[in-house]
Automatic annotation (TrEMBL):
This is Beta-galactosidase. Transmembrane segments: none annotated. The keyword Hydrolase applies. It comes from Paenibacillus macquariensis. It catalyses: Hydrolysis of terminal non-reducing beta-D-galactose residues in beta-D-galactosides.
Length: 991
């Protein structure tokens, strides 16, 4: 085909209608804004004939494609072309406006029938096509458009014939717009959103803008119309949620102003919507209106004059089975999960979402940062890997101005009537330049009622890395560490937003609660958006029908960014990650604090009174068993205020007494069933420490030297201590061996994605655990001594942990006292090599026979917990089968540890192995070894080890956010150079 608009930076569209606000008209008397069951809409979704050509030049409209492809879809999901995942870099040479000659092209064809009448105009709409498209009707060229995530509308009236018509669409994988769409995602192509024809009267309202403003006891809703054809009489009715008309008016001008008395305002907590019915003689447009304002006072962000916090996430359109295609059900599922995890804000990273998405956000209550389809930081690597001098190249280059401005205009014009949109974002990571200024002007001309956001980092040589928010309304940063974040929160002149923070890749993010603490501490801190909502991956099934997820590099791509796309708060199928549970409790609607014997509730909501929104239930547990409970159902507490909670607790003496307040949804909400738990606070009310003294035993113990160590025997046990290992290699209880392999000292863990950023296990970073050889650490023992009394045997074994070529990592004085009861009191005095920054962990690793399947522990659960990631966990006595303790990350890594454990048992049918300590420790029980986890690249390649691997750790380093964000905070790393690890290991026959 011989068209070349896709390689011309000044041509972003050809023959499209001017942009307009999004709506779906219907017939007078109808009452719908939906495309379904609407006689004015001819939905062209469904099966299209499809021909795939490896290059545009080979593509032909004449061919009769014998393949079919569903619309909407991405053709890569149907076996055409190849998947490729790249984050920052351009997947094609940076040679604008040109794109590769091998430019895959899909030709889509189908027929549809219309009845032509003089009174009707026909508009063909595409809501999303990646990357650009040429449209033909009955063999005649209609038009062209780019900007993948925006609507293109064509007036096709004059191209149609009465009866059957043939539409053909040539979609190209690459166009000059590709240089502006370098978003972090799988690069897919095709018609991925709805396609339809609208039948409209010759005269109609083409575009309208609804602008609410709020007065004391009323609201003014101003309408601005842009009619097609001659001016029309427009009659507007505003209905409340019960369907009562609360305002109406008529005009043939281009403006109208209506007043609503005592309006109910829209906010994310109480998303009250009015309905607008806009009638013209032959058409009706039904839309919703939210009465709300957005403003700033000093550096505080206000909705309806009330300070708010954005508890946000970044969300991509990404589904493992449908690619970019987001059905209503899929979007609702995302929003429901978000709502149930206290998320109230979404940044549509990094492009406008499907129009319907915003209607759902209006309806269910979310604040949206609506982002333009714009990201050009591929320029960063256009002259060498990530060279800052080139970062803002595109935003500085005049020849991109038309396209950059077009993108924000399309964004604002389409979504201008959506109350959920509180902030416009020019795009993501494209640097600051002359085109930014032009884009800001364009947005401001179109809308002054929202705030304007852009990361605004200027990378040009003269102002290397400086931020400039002069022309923005908010100050927005990505991944600042905690210390810097606090500094920003003390100095910001405009509302501070972290548009990305807490990189949720793999096991993480750590330290979320610290960031949330800062959000609340500073009025001018408007909140932040976790990167990101979902893992991006491609689903395939194995022969047994098990799901397997693929990521970058799995499709033979040369240029790719591996598993960097697997960095969400939910797995691709939307199963929550433990990071989401962490976020949920950080963003909980109530905080309860304790002051001696009183408890104070702090309503963290911005609009709702506590008595309307939530009920509080409390439970008192001792050692994990409930001993009292109560509820507070009608506690009135205004938003942002604090009051003492009216509870009287029974007084209980003892240890392991925990009080938990849980916040349950009370108000009716379509996405949150009444009674759903939205978070909790827990308090330790113990009056004494747990008595962990050993049961008395007068049974005899003997020790007998063997070739390799000592055999220590008692009434019902025999243990073998292996001198070379400095620990036991056999543990027989009542004649049955519990160990599958000898126990080991352990200072390493299967690197998490965050470790790989931080510790340089991948190619980046300073300190590589592997180059230090921590992964190969093993015991080198010195002279072992054994002391025997009637009822105990004490083995003392000095040792070092060593690896080839490395100086010992630590020296350990290990002392094991074996009692007649079978209990082994282990005590380790550890000195760590001074130059080691920190250890991943320190502890003992047992390899039990695989039938040790039942785990009981008193510690932070039920999900995995780490020193910097346990805000979503509480302390109790938990029971789980070992496989249930496993967190199946798509990229296998350290998982399933439990922080703050006081006691842990593993049992099979015969034996219970108990480990406990006076000082809380971490443990992990797994079917997999850390070696297997570290060596495996996909969850579905993992092989079970054939034993139950049980780590008892003095400490486990936290998880941090180092894969893209800040490293694990100092206080959560195992940095101690001298410490003592005491614990008791107590095998017993099951009674
Ligand atoms: C930053 C991007 O904005 C986002 O799209 C995503 O790539 C994320 O980080 C990493 O997953 S890019 C980074 C260089 C800050």
């Amino acid at each position: 085909m011989n068209y070349n608009y896709h390689q011309d930076l000044n041509i972003v569209r050809m023959n499209t209608m001017p942009d307009r606000s999004y709506y779906i008209p219907c017939s007078p008397g109808d009452d719908t804004s939906s495309k379904e069951y609407n006689e004015r809409v001819l939905l062209l979704n469904g099966s299209w004939q499809f021909a795939y050509f490896p290059s545009f030049s080979e593509a032909s409209l004449e061919s009769t494609p014998d393949n079919v492809l569903p619309v909407p879809s991405n053709w890569q999901m149907y076996g055409y072309d190849n998947h490729q995942y790249v984050n920052i870099d351009y997947p094609i040479p940076f040679n604008p406006p040109f794109v590769p000659k091998e430019n895959p092209c899909g030709v889509y064809k189908r027929t549809f029938s219309v009845e032509l009448t003089e009174k009707t105009r026909f508009y063909l709409n595409f809501e999303g096509v990646d990357s650009c498209h040429y449209v033909f009707l009955n063999g005649v060229f209609v038009g062209y458009s780019q900007v993948s995530h925006s609507t293109a509308e064509y007036d096709i009236t004059s191209f149609l014939q009465d009866g059957e018509n043939q539409i053909a669409v040539a979609v190209l994988k690459w166009c000059d717009g590709t240089y502006l769409e370098a978003q972090d995602k799988f690069r897919m192509s095709g018609i991925f959103r709805d396609v339809y024809v609208l039948r409209r009267p010759q005269q109609h309202v083409r575009h309208y803008v609804v602008q609410p403003s709020i007065q004391q006891e009323s609201a003014t809703v101003s309408f601005k119309f842009d009619d097609f054809g001659t001016a029309l009489v427009k009659s507007v009715k505003v209905l409340d949620a019960e369907g009562r008309a609360v305002a109406q008016g008529e005009t043939c001008d281009d403006t109208l102003s209506l007043t609503i008395e005592n309006p109910v305002h829209w906010n994310a907590e109480q998303p009250y919507l009015y309905q607008m019915v806009l009638d013209t003689l032959q058409e009706r447009i039904v839309d919703t209106i939210g009465i709300r304002t957005i403003a700033t006072r000093g550096n505080v962000l206000l909705v309806n004059e009330q300070p708010i916090k954005l508890k946000g996430v970044n969300r991509h359109d990404s589904y493992p089975d449908t690619g970019y295609v987001a059905s209503r059900e899929q979007m609702v599922m995302d929003l429901q999960l978000m709502k149930q995890h206290n998320i109230n804000a979404i940044r549509t990273s990094h492009y406008p979402n499907a129009p319907e998405f915003y209607h759902l956000c209006d309806e269910f209550g979310f604040y949206v940062i609506d982002e333009g389809d714009m990201e050009s930081h591929g320029a960063w690597s256009s002259h060498g890997l990530r060279d800052n001098d080139w970062y803002a190249l595109v935003h500085h280059d005049q020849q991109f101005q038309t396209a950059i401005v077009d993108r924000v205009q399309r964004l604002v014009t389409r979504d201008i009537n959506r109350p959920c949109v509180v902030i416009w974002s020019l795009g993501n990571e494209s640097g600051l330049g002359i085109n930014t200024i032009a884009a800001v002007d364009a947005v401001r001309k179109l809308d002054s009622s929202r705030l304007l956001h852009y990361e605004s980092k200027n990378f040009m040589p003269e102002d290397e890395g400086k931020f400039n928010f002069d022309i923005m309304d908010v100050e927005s940063y990505m991944y600042p560490d905690l210390e810097y974040t606090e500094k920003l929160a003390q100095e910001n002149k405009k509302p501070l937003i972290l548009c990305e923070f807490a990189h949720a890749m793999g096991n993480g993010p750590g330290s979320l609660s610290e960031y949330y603490e800062l959000f609340y501490r500073y009025d001018g801190f408007a909140g932040g958006f976790v990167w990101e909502w979902c893992d991006h991956a491609i689903l395939q099934y194995d022969a047994n029908g098990n799901a397997q997820y693929l990521y970058g590099g799995d499709f033979g791509e040369v240029l790719h960014d591996g598993n960097f796309c697997v960095d969400g708060l939910v797995y691709p199928d939307r199963t929550p990650h433990t990071g989401l549970l962490e976020l949920k409790n950080c963003a909980r609607p109530v905080h309860v604090t304790r002051d001696a014997n009183t408890f104070w509730a702090d309503n963290k909501l911005d609009f709702a009174d506590l008595s309307d929104a939530l009920s509080i239930v409390w439970t008192l547990e001792q050692n994990g068993t409930k001993i009292a409970e109560g509820s507070i159902t009608d506690f009135s507490l205004a938003p942002h205020s604090k009051a003492q909670l009216p509870i009287s607790l029974p007084y209980i003496d003892g240890s392991r007494i925990y009080l938990k307040f849980e916040y349950l949804q009370k108000a009716a909400h379509p996405l949150i069933p009444v009674g759903t738990s939205l978070g909790f606070d827990q308090f330790d009310l113990s009056t004494e420490d747990m008595n962990v003294s050993l049961p008395e035993s007068h049974s005899a113990v003997t020790a007998e030297q063997t070739k390799t160590g000592w055999l220590v025997c008692g009434e019902a046990f025999s243990y073998h201590f292996k001198a070379k290992l400095g620990t036991f290699d056999s543990c027989v209880i009542n004649g049955i061996e519990c160990f599958a392999r000898p126990a080991e000292f352990d200072i390493y863990r299967a690197p998490t994605d965050n470790d790989m950023g931080e510790a340089g296990i991948a190619s980046y970073g300073q300190h590589s655990w592997n180059s230090l050889r921590l992964d190969a650490a093993h015991a080198y023992t010195y002279e072992t001594s054994v002391e025997q009394s009637n009822t105990s045997v004490t083995i003392t074994c000095p040792l070092s942990l060593v690896a080839d070529r490395a100086t010992p990592f630590c020296n350990i004085q290990a002392v094991y006292k074996v009692h007649g009861s079978g209990a082994i009191e282990a005590s380790m005095h550890v000195s760590v090599r001074k130059d080691l920054d920190y250890l991943p962990r320190f502890g003992m690793r047992y390899f039990l026979t695989e039938d040790f399947q039942n785990c009981t522990y008193f510690g932070y659960g039920p999900q995995e917990s780490y020193s910097d990631k346990h805000a979503g966990c509480y302390k109790s006595m938990f029971h789980a089968a070992v496989p249930e303790l496993f967190e199946n990350y798509i990229y296998p890594q350290e998982n399933g540890s439990h922080y703050g454990t006081a006691e842990c048992t593993l049992s099979n049918a015969n034996t219970t192995l108990r480990a406990y300590s006076t000082k809380p420790f971490s443990f992990c029980a797994s079917e997999y070894t850390r070696e297997e986890l570290a060596a495996t690249k996909h969850h579905f390649e993992l092989q079970r080890s054939g034993c139950t691997v049980w780590n008892i750790d003095y400490a486990m380093t936290g998880v941090g956010s180092g894969s893209c964000g800040p490293y694990t905070l100092e206080q959560y790393r195992l940095t101690e150079k001298e410490f003592v690890f005491d614990y008791t290991f107590f095998p017993q026959k099951k009674s």
